[in-house]
Amino acid sequence: MRNCKFTESGDPIVLGVLKEATVENTIAQIKKCEAAGATAFNLHLSLLEGENREPEALKKIFAAANSPVMAVHYNNNPRGVTRKDTSDMRVAEMLRAVECGAAGIDMQGYTFCADSRATLLKFGDPEKHPFISANPKEVVLDHEVIEKQKRVVEKVHSLGGEVLMSCHTGVFLDTMHILAVAKLMEERNPDFIKIVTPANNKDDVLVALNSIHMMKKELHTKFSYHCSGRVGRITRYIGPYFGSSQVFAMDYYNEYADKEQLLVSKFLDFYNEVEFP
User: Fold this and answer.
1) Do residues 268 and 40 make contact, with C-beta atoms less than 8 angstroms apart?
2) DSSP structure string for 151-185
C-alpha cells in the first residue's frame, strides 16, 4: 500500500534498490533493506519476470513495504538484453504501478523523445541553456515533449503519487551547467530531481560537491546529484551531507546490481558518524 509520500520520508531518503525477478525475492529484499535502515524503495519493473509484473503481484510487493516504493522502468532486461518498450509503454506500466500502490515513479528526462541531443541543436539557446556546449544526454528542449512530460506529472499527482525526474547526462557538467539543467527539469513540476554525471578525476568531485551546495541554495525542489564511475563513488557518501536528498543503495549485490551503488548499512554508518559524531 502507499504508506506515505517520499517528501515526508526525511533527508536523506535512503532508497533500497530492488532488482529481483520474483515477488518473493523482492519482498525478501524489502524486509532486509528495511532492517538495514532503508526509508524508501526503488523498484525496477523491467526486471520482474512474467506474472510477477501483473497488478496482483505488484500489490503484494507494495503491501509488504512499510516505506514508499518508487516504480522505475529503465528498459533493462533480466538476461542483459535491452528491452524495446516505447516511452508510452513504460509510462503506462509505471502509472499502473501507482494505481496498484506505488508511491511514485521515476520519469527519465528524455521520455517521449527519440533523440534528445538533437533537440539541443534545434531548440538550444546558448544564453538560456549554457549546457548545450557540453552536449549532455537525456536533456530535452522540444516544447511538445516537455508538455507531454508535464501531463504525466499531472496524472501521477492526480493519482496521489509523486514524480522523480531523472537525467543521466553521460558527460561531466560544471556547476553553472548543472544548475541550468536542474532548473529546466524543475519547470516540469516534479517532486524530486535526480541528475547523474560521470566524474573523471578528483577535481570533478570537488566541482560536483560545489554543485550540490549551490543546488541546495537555488532550487525549490528536492534533488539528488551524484557522480558515476569509480572516482565519483565518494559523492554518493558525501553528497547527502551537503544537501543531496536521496541515496540509492542495496542490501547486497546480485547479478543485476550496479556495484557503484552503496550498501544501505555502510552508507548509514558513514552518514550517522559524520552527522552525529
Assistant:
1) no
2) HHHHHHHHTT-EEEEEEE-SS---HHHHHHHHHHH
Query: What would the grid cell of residue 110 be?
Result: 528524455
Task: Give per-residue burial for 30-68: e unless 16+ CB within 10 Å, then b.
Answer: bebbbebbbbbbbbbbbbbeeebbeeebbbbbbebbebb
- Per the structure block, which three cell numbers stand in for 115? 533523440
The reported pTM is 0.94
Q: Which residues contact 153 (CB under 8 A, 6 or more apart)?
A: 107, 163, 165, 188, 189, 190
C-alpha span between 276 and 271 (Å, rounded): 8
CA 57 to chain centroid, in Å, comes to 23
Angle between helices 23-36 and 55-64 (to 10 degrees): 20
pLDDT, mean of each 10-residue run, the chain (277 residues): 72 94 96 96 93 96 95 77 83 97 96 96 95 97 97 97 97 98 97 97 98 97 96 96 94 84 94 82
Residue 141: strand, helix, or coil: coil
Q: Which residues contact 133 (CB under 8 A, 6 or more apart)?
A: 126
- Amino acid making up residue 225: Y
For the chain, list the domains and their CATH numbers.
1-108+245-277 (3.20.20.70), 112-235 (3.20.20.70)
> What contacts 199, CB < 8 A, 6 or more positions away?
172, 205, 208, 227, 228, 229, 231, 232, 235
